[in-house]
User: Which sequence fits this backbone?
């Protein structure tokens, strides 16, 4: 949330954290409009997922439906979940008392697209390696031994990756 001076005043106001496209049906709004949500810009979808965001049901409908289907498979529910149900579970998995929720897992157990913290840096799990994240793109490839790592991507999202949801990755991640 931000003030009328466009300064961040708190980490979040609601549990609905979504990723949208930059342009949709010719709509325009001023970034950090007073009384509205604060826009964040991510390198790619995998980075947004690491922060705990999910695809928007309006402007990213196809991605939202694919994510929702993976969520349904992971939860083994009788019906596909509603956005509010996913947001409620996601919120508890991404933040606790203002702090980012992380957990430990064996690197070999993690699917592509998950983010982990190794030696102080954020890395993307990609095939048999870890790619170092920077704001400009992925810069180096690291081939670790099987170790236990701190997982940055919320657990429900990692489980969606296991069920077949493939996050979009910046082009620098494909060239490594």
Assistant:
């Amino acid at each position: 949330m931000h003030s009328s001076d466009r300064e961040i005043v708190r980490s979040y106001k609601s549990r609905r954290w979504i990723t949208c496209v930059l342009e949709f049906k010719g709509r325009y709004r001023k970034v950090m409009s007073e009384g509205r949500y604060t826009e964040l810009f991510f390198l790619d979808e995998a980075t947004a997922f690491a922060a705990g965001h999910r695809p928007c049901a309006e402007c990213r409908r196809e991605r939202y439906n694919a994510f929702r289907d993976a969520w349904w498979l992971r939860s083994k529910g009788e019906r596909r979940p509603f956005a509010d149900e996913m947001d409620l579970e996601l919120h508890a998995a991404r933040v606790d008392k203002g702090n980012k929720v992380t957990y430990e897992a064996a690197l070999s157990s993690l699917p592509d697209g998950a983010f982990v913290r190794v030696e102080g840096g954020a890395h993307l799990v990609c095939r048999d390696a870890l790619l170092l994240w920077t704001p400009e793109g992925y810069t180096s490839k690291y081939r670790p031994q099987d170790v236990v790592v701190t997982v940055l991507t919320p657990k429900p999202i990692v489980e969606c990756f296991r069920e077949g949801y493939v996050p979009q990755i910046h082009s620098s991640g494909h060239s490594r």
Observations:
- Helices lie at 45-51, 61-75, 83-94, 155-162, 171-174.
- Residues 61-75 form the longest helix (15 residues).
- The beta strands are 18-19, 54-55, 95-96, 99-100, 103-106, 115-118, 121-126, 129-134, 137-142, 148-151.
- The chain has one domain: 18-174.
